[in-house]
Amino acid sequence: MMNRNVHSSLRRVAFLTLLISGCAPRIAPYSERAYENATRLKAEALVLMDRATTSYRLREPEIQQLSVRVQAAYEYANGLPNNQLSAEQWRMLIAPDELFLGGYFALWQRQDTLMQGDIDAAKTNVRKAFDEIIRLEAAKIRK
Amino acid sequence: MAENGAFFKVVEDGLLALAKQEAGEYASELVKDVQKFVDENKDDLLMWGKQLAAGEMTAEGFNFAVKGRHRLLRMEALTQAGLATIRVDELKHKVLETIVAAATKTFLP
User: Fold this and answer.
1) ipTM
2) How far is CA A87 from the centre of its chain?
3) Domain range for A64
4) Would A22 be classed as within a structural domain?
5) Is the CB of B85 inside 8 Å of chain A's CB atoms?
6) pLDDT by position in tens, chain A (length 143)
7) Nearest residue, CB atoms, B57 vs list A104, A110, A115
8) Does residue B41 sit in helix, strand or coil?
């Protein structure tokens, strides 16, 4: 009788364990590389944005180089399984038709130079956008 | 200071007119959402408005900044969705650990 109860309990525990472990995590674990990408690129982006009082044409090589690095960070985030939320944040950051870094470079290109007031206002939003990416990455579960 | 009040009065009047004209039954919801956005970003909106008036910002730069600030709400929503998912994953992990601990304590000699 005792033996049968033990077996029944074991079966229930095994079933529960299988049930829960079968549900894989719904969001990617913390990635040191993604976090490092976001913090480093935030600093680089804010410094480069400040240079928009000079001609876009003069700064184009730097802008292209940074754009490639940010694009690579997006591709990395987008390639991680269950990482759609972070990948969408990166996409918004770099898209030229959005209102963050990619949009800022497009605005700079259209106007060739920007006023300091425009630069400071856009920097506030880009800083906050990076902070959202960093906040989400930092909260992810460490493996 | 009176200028600040005038700025927000213009925003409010414009918003109410737009809501009445365009939003129909959703007017009150729309007004509430936009007023919340304006309240939360009052300092920056005022500063940018003054810079625009003083010729320290361009109209396009002002437009980019205000719309960008509003678009940040989507970024924040993505973070909140992620944080909620993380909490569920953490809970599942804790449940699993509890099961394993209980099984070990109960069944192993």
Assistant:
1) 0.86
2) 6
3) 28-139
4) no
5) yes
6) 556 666 666 676 666 666 665 667 799 999 999 999 999 999 999 999 999 999 999 999 999 999 999 999 999 999 999 999 999 999 999 999 999 999 999 999 999 999 999 999 999 999 999 999 999 999 999 98
7) A115
8) coil
